[in-house]
Amino acid sequence: MLNEHIQIGPISVPIWPKGVRIQNMDPMVYFAVFPDNDLIRSVAGPKLLAGEEAFRKAEGDRWVGAGGAKVRDIGSWPCPAMTLLHERAKLAFKMITKAKTAEIDDCWASVYRKGEFIGPHAHRRTEMSLVYHLEPPDPKDRAEFNGALGITDPRVAKCCPTSPGCVTSQIYPPLDPGTLVMFPSFVVHYVTPYLGDGHRISIAWNIAREKLQGNVADQPLL
Ligand SMILES: [Fe+2]
User: How far is the CA of 123 from the centre of ligand 1 (A)?
Assistant: First the structure.
């Protein structure tokens, strides 16, 4: 898998480019930065924005704290850029957990517009959750951690710098384009209000070692 490629137009893209390393921010929080985000965004970005438009047309007025527009059928898209991201997410899962198998239980894209955010929450069906920053806020819109994915959980040591198990701080993983952030699904995370005039696109996966029974809709979609 490490040496496998996926064809995107005329370009053969490695699922795991040489030199990309998974780094720890904490024993439970990982990230990796991929160098080919411009290509992936150029292919997947317009499709996700079309999905956003359809979502907002169907949903009407939406609470700003609902995590932006959700594009939820991306797992079945015949889109090589999305296929690359799915394979990359599964490979990252295997590298972190040492599992031999990876099954995507759920995946979706979130498109945030000005003022939208999502409060602290976790995901309960799976072992790991992953978030890919396809189009994060511009650096000028990131002041004070605006539009940032944050982590705050009593089981994450860096969130508890003064007393174990007592959350007095948060972690803000890197927010640059092409960053994949990974953590156990039970870890509490959130997105602060996006304050730019454009859009913010992230893609998320919940991954388990085996195909899970039951319906993914049994859990909140956030
Ligand atoms: Fe989440």
Answer: 6
